[in-house]
Amino acid sequence: MPKMKTKRAAKKRLKKTATGKLMRAGAFKQHKLEHKHPKRRRHSRKNRVVAKADERVLKVLVPYL
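User: That's the sequence. What structure does it adopt?
Assistant: Structure tokens below.
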């Protein structure tokens, strides 16, 4: 059986934790930050764990991550 190909776009956006969960960057922090409150900007720096409902689909996209 041939190797599975990794989706490069997904590989660039996802990281795996030591326990095997997928981490993703948060949304709404690329531009128009001047009207967002500093607390909101500060909290949006953190990465988030991928939702359990989406994790199975995303693991297919990055099989060797």
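The mean pLDDT is 94.
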